[in-house]
Fold Succinyl-diaminopimelate desuccinylase.
Amino acid sequence: MPDQKTFIDENRGHFVELLKELLRIPSVSTDSRHKEDVKTAADWVADRFRNLNLETKIIPTEGHPIVYAESPPVPGKPVALVYGHYDVQPPEPLDLWVTPPFEPTERDGNLVARGATDDKGQMLTHVFGATAWMKSMGELPIQVKFLIEGEEEIGSANLGPFIEQNKELLANDVVVISDSSQFAPGQPAITYGLKGIAYFELKLIGPNRDLHSGSFGGSVRNPANALCGMLSTLIDEHGWIHIPGFYDDVKPITGDERENFAELPFNEEKFKEQLGVDAVHGEEGYTTLERRWARPTLDINGLTSGYQGEGAKTVLPSEASAKFSCRLVPDQCPHKIGKALREHLEKVCPSGIKMEFKEHHGSPGFVVATDSPYVKAASAAIEQGFGNAPVLIREGGSIPIVANFAQQLDSDVLLLGWGLDDDNTHSPNEKFNLADFQRGIAASAQLWAELAKIEK
């Protein structure tokens, strides 16, 4: 029977073909037209666990199903819970994809498809890391539980209650999540902090129909003009957010963290070149990494109003809307900020306009201890899998359920990203480097061995 490394080397191509199978399933959780596709993806993931003879369940929710699987307990050893998601973001705009979003294509050493890195490819590295153990040794050296959901991209509304109601089933010592990035190509990382999120939608309603802007302009309030004015009160040119009380609970970046960030090999010129911009921008007084990782932000995510077809149409629109989000740092409360934001918008909403405000999903930020035995185990596993020791970083993205794991299950959390920051997550031409996919599998297989060295 081959060892794990030999098994992984012999099955490199097979692992890629399995990933392609999952990527072909358009499991877009936010679009009701893809409800059956999401279920198909859940069934596919469950079948992988059944093929390993793991105890497997597909658990229905009010939304999309949760897939749960576990290997047998190993007395005296830690229990790891792998969390991931099989749902993906919508692929639009479709015309910007070089190849179809749900037809995975190998290009320049990458696999290009929606969900390639977020999170199907990264999630499967842990499935295949466990596969290597089960197929080469017949068992895992620790108990590994898998919790794979289908609603991460829409806020994990049903997973939180599931965790609360199934604490015994999900009990573990450490949660392992790969849904983030390395620091740079060839430089793996362990992410010890995530930002939280608060997502909002604002709709302004004016006249009861679109109007001729010549005949009616200057006589009624234009909702699009009003929307621009209201949004301009939220953040200024210096990057300072003007929601009342927004910074009340923001902890300053520590001196040690600022030193650690400054020592990382970050090249701002290459960063600008990669993004196609001639300048960076954000809250004054902070570096680019500090703003991305450890300071709160506000960004408009979408604007809709009036005529948007080809050519000109002189219309005074009857409605205007915006979707925008705040990325939060630890101790900021999404609901507290939402309440303050609503009150602020109500005060600045002009006469002649009706305002509708909606809070979508939200979650707090999170920071984990960097001196735990689990972080040390992960560092050793990553160094073996990638051939390079990881650095410790924070991340500007959000994984809403992380705080639930820490608070409700009293778990340590390992955030191990195999992706790269130019993987186009949530954008056209999402990709996953195939060499990093294979390194992630090797690191995952080694992680189970390193965790087994920790005595409970």
Notes: The chain has a mean pLDDT of 96. The longest helix spans residues 116-136. The two ends are 30 Å apart (CA to CA). DSSP finds 15 helices and 18 strands in the chain.
